[in-house]
Amino acid sequence: MGQSPIDLPSWLLLNLEPWRHATHWRIAFSGGLDSTVLLHLLVTLAKNESLPALSAIHIHHGLQAAADAWPQHCQAVCDAWGVPLQVQRVRVQPGASLERAARDARYTVFSSLTQTNEVLLTGQHRDDQAETLLFRLLRGAGVRGLGGMPSQRPVGQGVLVRPLLDVGRAELERYAQAHQLRWIEDPSNQDQHFSRNFLRQRIMPALTERWPQAQASLSRTAAHLREAQGLLDELARIDLAQAETAHEFDWLGVPSLALAPLAALSAARQRNALSHWLEPLTRLPDTDHWSGWTHLRDAAQDAAPVWRLADGELHRGAGRLWWLSGDWLQAPVIGGEWQAPASALRLPGNGRVMFSGQPPQGPLRIAYRQGGEVLRLADRGHRDLKRLLNERAVPGFLRGRLPLLFRGDELLAVANLAGLDGDTHGDWKLHWQPTDEDLGLR
């Protein structure tokens, strides 16, 4: 695009064509230059084009005194342009990175507000993309990170779109001045304590003085890296197809992979496939933390290794990898007897159990394995429960969660394990639904 002016309204309309049939366009409106130009462009287009309903969202972080006046400014702008405005106050959690904490708070609100068939529009531009690439490069990011900000991605139940990523800040300033727009200048943007401000004020000017097209080149590099990441994602899907095999514990609803197909890949392909698989489940580990994967993969056959990640744990058992989070990481708690076995019994943090057929006579209770339990089998006599679980290759993480049915001190059944889950005559079976979701029973 270079430095030549472009017809921003027409260019924006073409860029947003795929989302013309959305029910709602929400604009993230900070009141700064970028979002002010974006909102003005959309209001102008709406006068002559049939666009989805427009509204604006202003996030008040409450991080500086000057920000208290910004909602009033945004309200005045939106009133003048006939755009409904929603002001959301957020509490930014303290932490090492104030920038990241503010962003997380902002996008939590965006996710909660964006519904099905709705689009959230944000004003990041080409200069922002160049800064993002440089910032992540200096932090040692991989290909995924160096791809910068995507032009679109899911948010909430809808989609986030950044329609100005190919437009430079200078182009937005020219438009704003030509239309006599007023915008907020955030005082914190001058604070070079923040890494992005340092890059913007000290590094980028030096780069563009020597290489005038530096920002456009960096943005183009980010696009190349996003394309490379797309190829890596395709390779990951090919590799994962060999590991996402059906197994006898599918009913658990726990994400899992067969270990052998992954272990047969090169180390780089293992990391690529696992990163792709883990990305929707957890924040990905940094380079140093990937040693946890090596330990998990190479642990002895009789070991029960665990790789702890930001939002859960990866376990190994029964020849598979298992992703556990939430209740799966908490020890289940059981209280009292099963007073009404004709009805399902909810287990705190562990779904529910129920009978098919006529329940056995009581008093009945559900408990969990403590060690030393013995189950009587019609054709084999009394057998140690540990040995029975070994025979069925029950993963280690599951053994302490399987509901056990007792009558007094007598173990009658183990939920969901064929041959162990009911009486010898088939009059009843004990079923376990591990979560409150309807995952189906086997």
Automatic annotation (TrEMBL):
GO terms for molecular function: ATP binding; tRNA(Ile)-lysidine synthase activity. ATP binds at residues 30-35. The keyword RNA-binding does not apply. It catalyses: cytidine(34) in tRNA(Ile2) + L-lysine + ATP = lysidine(34) in tRNA(Ile2) + AMP + diphosphate + H(+). One of its GO terms (biological process) is tRNA modification. Its EC number is 6.3.4.19. GO terms for cellular component: cytoplasm. It is found in: Cytoplasm. The keyword Secreted does not apply. Residues 364-432 form the Lysidine-tRNA(Ile) synthetase C-terminal domain. Keywords: ATP-binding, Cytoplasm, Ligase, Nucleotide-binding, tRNA processing. It holds the Pfam family ATP_bind_3. Its main location: cytoplasm. Ligates lysine onto the cytidine present at position 34 of the AUA codon-specific tRNA(Ile) that contains the anticodon CAU, in an ATP-dependent manner. Cytidine is converted to lysidine, thus changing the amino acid specificity of the tRNA from methionine to isoleucine. Belongs to the tRNA(Ile)-lysidine synthase family. The N-terminal region contains the highly conserved SGGXDS motif, predicted to be a P-loop motif involved in ATP binding. NCBIfam families: lysidine_TilS_C (TIGR02433), lysidine_TilS_N (TIGR02432). This is tRNA(Ile)-lysidine synthase.
